[in-house]
């Protein structure tokens, strides 16, 4: 029996030591805090039941943290301790009771409440008001010298102000504000390097750098929360007033610090901070209650590695372990195929989570995640739950790779990857149910078929009522079918039907645009219309033919070919023509319509009568290229109000310059 317990204890100790190493030395934990805390509680309760098995080196008995010999050791003037913690109200009530029992009185206890900042502890020694050295907590007795790095943190004074003690050892938490954390991880993703698991690890990793110039760039911050040693200056006799003293010496103190009375006051504070957790600019993992009167603190004293007069009340975990059961693929409104993780349900961030986003296939590759893996999932605030890492040591033998499906799970069309992008898309276009609504909205929009009255809301409704399946169904709508819809009076039904009828008369360019081929905007559609003159010729066009057209590159040409290669799309086009969609024959194609062919224009300054984008579109429609910079190849410059360097350069190079007025006259003389 005891042998078994001994084995369990040894196993727990070894596992916890391993996690400590990864967390404190490598700043790269492999399991979430919740899992670590569970093991620690298990070990504690085994040791409580078998006190004879407690050894001095047990992680329950000593301050965890290791020393990395890349840093000089620094012995602390007074030890840096840890905090005991509770995870629920019952345990907190029991803690309160123990305090009163130990103090043997029922006098009202005041507590200073503080957020439990999720960073790493630092001790900074000021001598005669000047920053002398700074050290991490290390094993509690000896820390690592990080003085050079600490000096780069903007909010840490190098010199104290006011009536400071001659010698001051002040303790605080170095942390990385959420905004800085998001930015650093965004940069890491862009550079394809490893991201930090959470702001705590980012802060620790940034402070424990051999090169202070790296620390300097990391936007670390600090709040101070206690005094280790002070000589030559009387200290206040409550914890709260001491914090105010720190502030008066120029040392930042968290603005959320507050004095309350008894358990009720503590719990009200807890609820308030928990409610505001997501709005706080820094990450916290709970709150800390500290007996306010220093004399009472001294009566209470310390246990092995933590004060009795303080306790951390931890918040529900935002990170948890669970298993990835499967990866499903969803098709978005634009055909983008996104992987969605199906998880073994787990309670995290206050709710039970069974799905998580995986963004795209690159993200899966970055995480290196396989089906069957144990993963760390994070749910903070209202943010969609995310998988942040894989616990590789728990990977089962039958873990399976995640593969993108070859066919759309909704319409079975082929799936393809966009060149140079992480996104896979369904090529189904108009036939894909998932893309249907979006496609119909685009088709009916003003710059496309311009069907007045057929707006987004009505399209949603018609799709939901199964009156619209794809764009061809627009022409099958009848008065009897729509009159019974909500908010559809007889008059609006008539108006809609006549608008549909009227819109059948269009141009080839608008029709091509209306099809919603990826990356075929109005200008490209116009170029295509002018080049091919007939829709049938465009449908048959080859990649090479398309690429030979001005402004059409490989990618766009590819999208066009893929769109028309889809048999369903061709059938839809036939049906639209049968329904009566028509356009005038293009009489004067290419050259005649494009008198500015071969010219390169530059637009600069502010235009009064139109937007720059409109001027650009006009020029492009007439065949000109529009470039962003003036060179000897520039044909003309359109210069609006307060034109600057481009105007100067164009003048220098003797390039033709149009005022807005001249430009408008020129354009209207062509049209
Ligand atoms: N995931 C892992 O593998 C892993 C490994 C080791 C430790 N951990 C985490 O670290 C915890 C244990 O670390 P610990 O021993 O440093 O204890 P702790 O972090 O629970 O509490 C002590 C620390 O709290 C910090 N703190 C923040 N705000 C404070 C405030 N207002 N007043 C006083 N202190 C404040 C200080 O840095 C102090 O050293 C575990 O509970 C776990 O969450 C995780
Ligand atoms: Zn599809």
From TrEMBL:
Active site (UniProt): 116
Pfam families named in the record: BRCT (PF00533), DNA_ligase_aden (PF01653), DNA_ligase_ZBD (PF03119), HHH_2 (PF12826), OB_DNA_ligase (PF03120)
Residue ranges occupied by any BRCT domain in the UniProt entry: 591-671
CC cofactor: Mg(2+); Mn(2+)
UniProt organism field: Aliikangiella maris
Keyword tags: DNA damage, DNA repair, DNA replication, Ligase, Magnesium, Manganese, Metal-binding, NAD, Zinc
Catalytic activity, as annotated: NAD(+) + (deoxyribonucleotide)n-3'-hydroxyl + 5'-phospho-(deoxyribonucleotide)m = (deoxyribonucleotide)n+m + AMP + beta-nicotinamide D-nucleotide
SUPFAM superfamilies: BRCT domain, DNA ligase/mRNA capping enzyme, catalytic domain, Nucleic acid-binding proteins, RuvA domain 2-like
Protein family per UniProt: Belongs to the NAD-dependent DNA ligase family. LigA subfamily.
Protein name: DNA ligase
EC number annotated for this UniProt entry: 6.5.1.2
């Amino acid at each position: 029996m005891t042998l078994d317990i001994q084995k369990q204890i040894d196993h727990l100790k070894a596992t916890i030591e391993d996690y400590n190493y990864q967390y404190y030395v490598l700043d790269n934990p492999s399991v979430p805090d919740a899992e670590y805390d569970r093991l620690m509680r298990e070990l504690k309760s085994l040791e409580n039941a078998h006190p004879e098995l407690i050894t001095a080196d047990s992680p329950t008995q000593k301050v965890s943290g290791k020393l990395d010999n890349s840093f000089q050791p620094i012995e602390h003037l007074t030890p840096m301790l840890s905090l005991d913690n509770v995870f629920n109200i019952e345990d907190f009530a029991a803690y309160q009771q123990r305090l009163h029992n130990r103090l043997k009185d029922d006098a009202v206890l005041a507590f200073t409440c503080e957020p439990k900042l999720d960073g790493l502890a630092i001790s900074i020694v000021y001598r005669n008001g000047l920053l002398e050295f700074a050290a991490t907590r290390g094993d509690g007795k000896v820390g690592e010298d990080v003085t050079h790095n600490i000096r780069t943190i903007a909010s840490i004074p190098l010199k104290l102000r006011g009536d400071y003690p001659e010698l001051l050892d002040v303790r605080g938490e170095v942390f990385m504000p959420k905004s800085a954390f998001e930015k650093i991880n965004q940069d890491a993703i862009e550079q394809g390097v490893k991201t930090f698991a959470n702001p705590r690890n980012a802060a620790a990793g940034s402070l424990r750098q051999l090169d202070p110039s790296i620390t300097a760039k990391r936007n670390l911050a600090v709040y101070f929360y206690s005094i280790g040693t002070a000589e030559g200056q009387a200290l206040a006799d409550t914890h709260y007033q001491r914090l105010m003293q720190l502030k008066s010496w120029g040392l930042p103190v968290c603005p959320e610090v507050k004095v309350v009375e008894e358990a009720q006051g503590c719990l009200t504070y807890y609820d308030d901070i928990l409610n505001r957790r997501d709005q706080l600019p820094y990450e916290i993992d709970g709150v800390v209650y500290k007996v306010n009167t220093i004399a009472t603190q001294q009566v209470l004293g310390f246990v092995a590695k933590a004060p009795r007069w303080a306790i951390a009340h931890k918040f529900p975990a935002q990170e948890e372990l669970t298993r990835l059961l499967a990866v499903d693929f969803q098709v978005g409104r634009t055909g983008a195929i996104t992987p969605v993780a199906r998880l073994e349900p787990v309670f995290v961030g206050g709710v039970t989570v069974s799905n998580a986003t995986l963004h795209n296939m690159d993200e899966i590759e970055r995480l290196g995640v396989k089906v069957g893996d144990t993963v760390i999932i994070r749910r903070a605030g209202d943010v969609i739950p995310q998988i942040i890492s894989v616990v590789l040591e728990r990977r089962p033998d039958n873990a399976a790779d995640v593969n993108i499906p070859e066919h759309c799970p909704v319409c079975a069309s082929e799936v393809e990857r966009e060149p140079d992008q992480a996104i896979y898309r369904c090529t189904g276009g108009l036939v894909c149910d998932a893309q249907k609504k979006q496609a119909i909205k685009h088709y009916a929009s003003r710059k496309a078929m311009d069907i007045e009255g057929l707006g987004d809301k009505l399209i949603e409704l018609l799709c939901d009522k199964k009156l619209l399946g794809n764009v061809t169904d627009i022409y099958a709508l009848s008065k009897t079918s729509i009159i019974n819809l909500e908010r559809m009076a007889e008059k609006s039904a008539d108006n809609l039907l006549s608008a549909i009828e009227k819109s059948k008369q269009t141009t080839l360019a608008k029709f091509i645009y209306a099809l919603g081929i990826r990356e075929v905007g109005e200008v490209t559609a116009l170029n295509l219309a002018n080049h091919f003159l007939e829709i049938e010729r465009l449908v048959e066009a080859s990649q090479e033919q398309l690429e030979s057209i001005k402004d059409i590159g490989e990618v766009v040409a590819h999208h066009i070919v893929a769109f028309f290669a889809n048999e369903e799309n061709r059938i839809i086009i036939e049906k639209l023509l049968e329904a009566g969609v028509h356009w005038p024959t293009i009489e004067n194609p290419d050259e005649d319509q494009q008198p500015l062919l071969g010219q390169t224009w530059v637009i600069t300054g502010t235009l009064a009568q139109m937007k720059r984008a409109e001027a650009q579109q006009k020029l492009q429609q007439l065949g000109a290229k529009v470039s962003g910079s003036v060179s000897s190849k520039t044909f003309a410059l359109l210069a609006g109000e307060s034109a600057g360097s481009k105007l100067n350069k164009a003048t220098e190079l003797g390039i033709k310059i149009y005022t807005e007025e001249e430009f408008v006259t020129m354009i209207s003389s062509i049209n």
